[in-house]
Every structure is written in C-alpha cells, then in structure tokens.
Amino acid sequence: MFLQPSLDEDIKNWLNEDIPNWDPHSVGIDQEHDVKASIIAKQDGTISGVSVLKRVFELCNIQVTVNVNDGSHITKGTNICTLLGKSISILQAERTALNIFTHMSGITTMTSKMVELVRKNGSNIKIAGTRKTLPGLRKYQKYAIYCGGGDTHRINLESMIMLKENHISQFNSITDAILSYKAKSSFSLKIEVEVRTLKEALEAAKQNVDIIMLDNFDLSKLTDTIKQIKNINRAVLIEISGRISIDNISDYLQYPVDIISSGALTHSNVVFDTSLLFDDL
Predict the structure, then answer these.
(1) Which residues have CB under 8 Å from 238's CB, separation 6+?
(2) Do the domains 116-267 and 4-108+269-278 match in fold?
(3) CB 226 within 8 A of CB 208
(4) Pairing assessment for the beta strands 259-261 and 126-128 based on DSSP bridges
(5) Tens-place pLDDT, residues 68-88
(6) Which of 2, 41, 91, 277 has the most CB atoms in a 10 Å sphere around its CB?
(7) Active site residue 113
(8) Of 36, 113, 132, 182, which is the active-site residue?
(9) Bridge partners, 149 (sequence order)
C-alpha cells in the first residue's frame, strides 16, 4: 500500500488545488450537525483506491466506514463506503475523493477485463501497463493495474534498462547499444530491447538480452519471428506492444508471447461510475 506521509502530501496538494483559499459554498450551510452519506457504485466493475478515497475524507475530519476492498469485483448498487461528518466537509472532499477513486477503479476494471479475456483463452500471457501515465499519478495508476490482475511493468526508469528506437539511434547498431549498457550497468538490471523488424529481433536475441519487445509488429510475421528468436535464445521473454486495447486484444492471444503491454490501460480508460448520496435528514 502507499506510505501515509507520501499519500497525505499528495492529498493535501489535491485539496489545495480545489480549495486554495476559501469555499464560498460554506456560507449559509449547516455546520453544526453531523450528517451521513454513502458512495454507491453505478456500474459493475473491479475497484481500487479505496484506501486513498478513505484518507481524503479522513483528512477533512470525516469518519469513514469502508465496505469493500481493493481488487474486489462489485456490482451496481454496492455501498462502497459510508461517511459521517459535517456536510460542508463532505462536500469539500467529495470531488477530490471521487476523482482519484473513479480514475483508479476505471483502470482496474479495464485491466481486469483484459486479464479475463486472456484467461478465457487458456493463456498465461501477462497484461502489463506502460510509462504512459499522468505526471504525479503514476504510483496510483500502476497500483490500479496491479489490483486488476495486471503487471505494473517498469515503475520508473530505474526499474529496468529498456532500449527503445531513440536510444539505439545514438549507437552504430543494436549490438553496440546492448554491449555498452551491459558494460556500464548493474548486474541487477534486466535489459529489454524494442525492435521493429525480424533483423533487429535476431540481432538483439544474439546478445542474450532478457526481453525483446516486438513493437507494432506485422501479425502475419509474428509467429515466425518468435520461432527464430527462440532458436537463438530460448530463455528470452517476448513482449508485444503497439495500439493494443480491450477492443483488439483478442487478435493477439493466439501468439506465443509472454507479455502484452498496453498504454490504453492508463491513457484511454473510462472512469468508474459512482454517486455520493446524503441520507435522508
């Protein structure tokens, strides 16, 4: 889970963005009595960010009773949590809390659907995210993928060496790039190489890299390319990527790959639909 000091700092920044000085809505509203409210799911799906949602309200002096857990599949009408506190405090926290929760749960729901399609196909392919995340929100988006049964892939640039087209362009060849990084990097870092042609793939395989990513690869050439790679380096993992989403992932499940990475998990998801409703007074 998230370390509380870091989480609290993020939440305070989010709240300050929404209420930098004062809230004119507080004028005239009852601030003496506690009221109850609930957050209700308006769709089926798999959720994440419950602890973040809870902490937003807690930092606004609201008592929260959580009824579900991260990674749970819930149905329309589920009471996600109940709130007790001053109505103005609930209203001030509402948008910040729901924005992050529904965003994370939208990612988790989409990831879960993609993972389910893979499993129904009888495959063990990993569904992974990418670094196409929003600045400042990566840890939340990556965690949301994890809660949906996906793989986070690289959390940041420190996680692994991934030689993409623009890295390789700074060297004379893929081989030169790989040898340079192997000579100057820690033994603990895996090396992945992005390739676009059979020639590039075989060159990377000969250098015993850990992972080869076939990026935007011609599907008609995929099976033969993987076969030739494995004839050189049977242990290398094969990742495919490039405009893969919930709408077309089924087209890729017949191929002998280890990982399918999809930026759509974080940059094209639909938020999870919820409502905050006050109890009758």
Answers:
(1) 211, 212, 214, 226, 229, 256, 257, 258, 259
(2) no
(3) no
(4) parallel
(5) 999 999 999 999 999 999 999
(6) 41
(7) no
(8) 132
(9) none
% of the chain beyond a pLDDT of 90: 94
Q: Let me know: does 266 contact 107? Beta carbons within 8 Å.
A: yes
DSSP secondary structure string, 67-98? ---TT-EE-TT-EEEEEEEEHHHHHHHHHHHH
**Secondary structure (3-state) at 178:** helix
Q: Is the entire prediction scored with pTM above 0.85?
A: yes
pLDDT of 281 strictly over 70? no
Where along the chain do its domains lie? Answer: 4-108+269-278, 116-267
- Average pLDDT for residues 74-103, to the nearest whole number? 97
| Measured torsion, CA atoms of residues 40, 43, 46, 52, in degrees rounded to the nearest 10 | -30
What is the fold of 4-108+269-278?
Aldehyde Oxidoreductase; domain 3 (3.90.1170)
Task: Provide the token pair at 214.
Answer: 């076939």
Q: Which amino acid is at 145?
A: I
pLDDT at residue 198 is higher than 70: yes
In this predicted model, what pLDDT tens digit does every residue of 127-140 receive, in sequence order? 999 999 999 999 99
Topology given in CATH for the domain delimited by 116-267: TIM Barrel (3.20.20)
Distances (CA, A) of 252 to 57, 68, 150, 153: 42, 34, 16, 19
